[in-house]
Amino acid sequence: MLRDLIEKELINAREGAWVKVPAPSMGAVVKRLAISLVIFAVVLFLHPYFTGVPAIPSR
Questions:
Q1: pLDDT tens figures, 18-48
Q2: Is the pLDDT of residue 59 over 80?
């Protein structure tokens, strides 16, 4: 446990002060969400071709 505390202090001394990363803009968030939804839709559509079983079972 003492070794962990010493390592932590040495790493902190080496790395210096932590600089907070700025939050992404709303446009960047919306862009990522749109890209994620497109990828999800493509995978959902192609799922039967990859596995032979539809991802959303029909009634």
A1: 889 999 999 999 999 999 999 999 999 999 9
A2: no
27, 38 Cβ separation under 8 angstroms: no
Query: Could you tell me the pTM of the whole model?
Result: 0.62
Which stretch of DSSP H or E encloses residue 14?
helix 2-15
CA dist 4 and 59 (Å) reads 57
The answer to whether the CB of 56 falls within 8 A of the CB of 44 is: yes
Q: For the chain, how far is it from start to end, CA to CA, in angstroms?
A: 58
Which token pair is 24? 């992404």
The CB-side HSE value for 1 (13 A sphere, CA atoms) comes to 0
DSSP 16: -
